[in-house]
Amino acid sequence: MGDTLRRRTLAALTALALSSAVQADDTLFEQLGGAARLRGAVNEFVLLIQADDRINFTFADTDLTKFKQLLYDQLCALANGPCKYTGRDMRTSHAKLNITDAQFNALAEDLYAALDRVHVPYRLQNKLVALLAPMERDIVKPGFIPENGPAPAGVR
Ligand code: HEM
Q1: In three state form, how does the secondary structure of 111-126 look?
Q2: 46: nearest Cα among 31, 32, 27, 59
Q3: How many CB atoms lie within 10 A of CB 155?
Q4: How is the chain split into domains, by residue range?
Q5: What confidence score (pLDDT) does residue 15 get?
Q6: DSSP-H helix ranges across 26-121
Q7: Are 82 and 34 in contact (CB under 8 A)?
Q8: Mean per-residue pLDDT for 126-130?
Q9: Mean pLDDT of the chain
């Protein structure tokens, strides 16, 4: 191999290694656009929830400033950002709300719309929502979930 070719090959391999290292280190939090973007999304999300008659009444007694902070911390932590969620677990915090499957879907729809408003690409919206989807079983009132699915444990 000539010297020039060797140098070029080395340069190309270095660039490749660097670019994949950067990608591997990018958390979902960073890909989403970091703190400012996520704060913006949470603000829009709460505005949309407040305007959404399908679910806004469930928040009638909620301190929305506190809720925003907890939601931000939760989403940031889930996306491997530099945050710690200190709120209650999902089962406890939603236990008295009798949330239906339709209401859960309405909230997810509002989250997509909020992420749209702050220009998070759809591919990344899906990544974030995929991390939230498993919480459905803790949030939706047991017995409301299975339309055609399996019965919840203990129900026949
Ligand atoms: C994946 C979906 C959801 C996530 C990630 C989520 C997240 C949260 C978080 C982090 C809190 C604060 C917990 C705390 O107070 O310690 C909370 C509270 C609350 N959530 Fe959700 N939630 C979801 C679905 C829903 C749905 C579908 C509804 C209603 C339609 C809802 C209504 C509420 C209400 C009303 C509160 C406040 C309860 C209170 O003031 O005591 N949530 N949620």
Answers
A1: HHHHHHHCCCCHHHHH
A2: 59
A3: 9
A4: 27-139
A5: 55
A6: 28-32, 34-50, 64-78, 90-94, 101-117
A7: no
A8: 98
A9: 87
Q: How many residues are listed for the chain in this entry?
A: 156
pTM score: 0.82
Q: Is 42 in the pocket of ligand 1 (CB under 6 A)?
A: no
CB of 99 closer than 6 angstroms to any ligand 1 atom = yes
Contacts of 67 (CB under 8 A, 6+ apart): 46, 59
DSSP state of 60: T
Q: Cα–Cα distance between 28 and 25 in angstroms, integer?
A: 10
Looking at the CA of residue 61, tell me the nearest atom of ligand 1: 40
Q: Per-residue pLDDT tens for 25-43?
A: 799 999 999 999 999 999 9
Rounded Cα gap, residues 149 and 144, in angstroms: 11
CATH (one of 3.90.850.10, 1.10.490.10, 3.30.830.10, 3.40.50.720) for 27-139: 1.10.490.10
| CB-ligand 1 contact for 107 (6 Å cutoff) | yes
Tokens 């997509």 correspond to 112
* pLDDT tens, residue by residue, 106-125: 999 999 999 999 999 999 99
